[in-house]
Task: inverse folding
């Protein structure tokens, strides 16, 4: 189809004074929390136990809110609605993934980590395999944070740029400095409480926008009618083709493996589980987190329907109101809430809150991981000195992530980019933990080289796919986007169509098949490669020679492991008795 006509022109919308006041008030409150916990609270941030774990005295609710805020990033708030608007709502199936992940966390992974009581979940890999495997996993986490955090920071920056006109190169350093400040001085307590504050603001903004948008568009029934007429209600696309952008299988299966890894096999979550007094509290926190996570995701999917219903006949990108698809939801909020002072400001605060919570969590946990796994084994510091070293790392990591933001802006949509980046390392990490927790026969060589093979494979696939996207060879066809309802449409009488389709008729067949693989499958593929390669290498290298502590296996495997041990011990006793009997008979014969 032809491109949208150039004569379509509309008026842009901007922040007002009240919006700015609300926005900067929230940023100031976040900084004040860091000042309080850094300088005035009874619990001083002068030792690693307090700085990283809050002395294990945190309450269930703020920990659950912090977990939810960390995993409901600005990508969820902006990227998901934009994706639904353009490609349909098949992403709703992520609710199935969320339920599976929550159950898996409570009954499979959490008991192992809580019994181990290590501030870094990668200490498990040292106990189960070797120091080398632990270092490799820590490196993967460092790589994940350095690749993912800039995407998280960039997302709200483009929203703020849309509603204010301020260049994102100006606002990004300011916001990052606030985040680095309260994370550096306040430690995990400041991170958790600012997460709770920011998540509250985010939820308030999200629900107000949902309610207001629904009322303005005539209710749920009308919204779903418009979405259905526009082909956006894609509930069960059961096509098994792995090269699609989205399908029921891509979302429900692909995201499950990625979320299990990102929630259950990363220090940023395990660290929070250990801040509560007992395992029952940790399980409650996981359930609250799981339910909250699913609700917010589904709200973001619904927001995609709101956007489409509002602009079903006038695409904002076509009319020049927004420059990028990822900015559509931010513009939508300004459009529907322009008569309610402060609501657009509250919404953008919610977007930034989501980003700040993820960034603060990442750099706080990453600094602790680097210290535990790379610094502590080689340098002996006093507790107060160690705390200062970690704070210095927080600043350094924050600056690196800030600089990488300016690379991210040159890449594709934040939704696909965030999942692709996460998929590179999450599958490999999950594969290592699966090998350790589910089989006592896997040895350190198998785990290490299985992970290496998985990482190299996924790096090649992801980098190759991004290169093909950058060159314009790999594109996904959007659903029809109409512009016949825009002011000024066909004023010259030259228009021959009322809609356009991104990448209409584009053929990806010339792109190598492996680079066409759906980005939601990256994590699953990485997990499978790590498990298969690790198991094969362990088998050919003789398997695990030393007995594995039952504590290092998931509770589901422990009963079977006990039976195997009992059987082996019984067979061993029988063999020893047979040898003794034969020797006695030989003596008698002589």
Result:
């Amino acid at each position: 189809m032809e491109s949208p006509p150039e004569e379509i022109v509309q008026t842009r919308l901007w922040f007002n004074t009240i919006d700015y006041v609300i926005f900067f008030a929230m940023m100031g409150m976040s900084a004040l929390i860091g000042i309080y916990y850094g300088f005035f609270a009874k619990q001083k941030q002068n030792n690693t136990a307090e700085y990283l774990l809050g002395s294990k005295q945190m309450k269930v609710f703020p920990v659950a809110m912090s977990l939810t805020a960390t995993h409901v990033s600005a990508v969820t708030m902006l990227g998901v609605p934009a994706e639904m608007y353009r490609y349909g709502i098949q992403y709703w199936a992520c609710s199935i993934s969320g339920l599976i992940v929550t159950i898996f966390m409570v009954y499979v992974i959490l008991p192992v980590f809580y019994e181990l009581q290590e501030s870094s979940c990668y200490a498990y890999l040292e106990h189960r395999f070797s120091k080398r495997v632990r270092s490799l996993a820590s490196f993967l986490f460092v790589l994940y944070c350095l690749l993912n955090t800039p995407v998280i920071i960039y997302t709200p920056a483009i929203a703020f740029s849309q509603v204010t006109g301020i260049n994102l190169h100006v606002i990004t350093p300011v916001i990052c400095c606030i985040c680095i400040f309260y994370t550096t001085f306040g430690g995990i307590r400041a991170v958790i409480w600012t997460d709770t504050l920011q998540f509250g603001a985010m939820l308030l903004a999200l629900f107000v926008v949902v309610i207001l948008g629904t009322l303005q568009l005539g209710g749920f029934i009308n919204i779903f009618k418009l979405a259905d007429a526009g082909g956006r209600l894609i509930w069960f696309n059961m096509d098994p083709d792995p090269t699609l952008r989205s399908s029921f299988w891509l979302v429900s299966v692909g995201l499950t493996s990625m979320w299990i890894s990102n929630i259950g096999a990363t220090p940023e979550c395990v660290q929070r589980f250990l801040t509560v007094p007992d395992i029952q509290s940790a399980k409650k926190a996981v359930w609250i987190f799981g339910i909250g996570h699913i609700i917010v995701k589904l709200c973001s999917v619904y927001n995609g329907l709101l956007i489409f219903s509002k602009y079903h006949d006038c695409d904002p990108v076509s009319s020049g109101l927004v420059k990028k698809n990822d900015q559509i939801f931010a513009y939508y909020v300004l459009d529907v809430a322009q008569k309610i002072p402060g609501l657009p400001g509250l919404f953008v605060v919610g977007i930034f809150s989501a980003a700040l919570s993820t960034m603060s969590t990442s750099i706080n946990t990453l600094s602790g991981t680097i210290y535990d796994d790379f610094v502590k084994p080689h340098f002996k510091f006093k507790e107060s000195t160690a705390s200062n070293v970690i704070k210095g790392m927080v600043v350094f990591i924050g600056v690196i992530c800030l600089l990488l933001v300016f690379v991210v802006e040159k890449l594709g949509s934040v939704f696909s980019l965030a999942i692709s980046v996460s998929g590179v390392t999450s599958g490999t990490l999950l594969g290592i933990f699966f090998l350790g927790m589910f089989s006592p026969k896997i040895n350190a060589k198998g785990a290490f080289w299985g992970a290496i093979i998985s990482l190299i494979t996924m790096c090649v696939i992801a980098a190759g796919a991004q290169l093909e996207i950058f060159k314009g060879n790999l594109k996904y066809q959007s659903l029809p986007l109409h512009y016949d309802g825009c002011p000024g449409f066909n004023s010259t009488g030259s228009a021959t169509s009322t809609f356009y389709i991104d990448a209409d008729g584009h053929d990806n067949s010339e792109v190598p098949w492996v680079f066409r693989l759906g980005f939601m499958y990256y994590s699953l593929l990485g997990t499978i490669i790590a498990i298969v390669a690790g198991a094969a290498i362990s088998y050919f290298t003789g398997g695990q020679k030393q007995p594995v502590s039952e504590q290092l296996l998931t509770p589901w495997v422990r009963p079977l492991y006990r039976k195997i041990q009992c059987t082996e011990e019984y067979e061993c006793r029988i063999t020893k008795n047979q040898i003794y009997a034969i020797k006695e008979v030989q003596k008698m014969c002589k």
About this structure: The radius of gyration is 26 Å. The chain is about 70% helix and 0% strand. The beta strands are 481-482, 499-500.
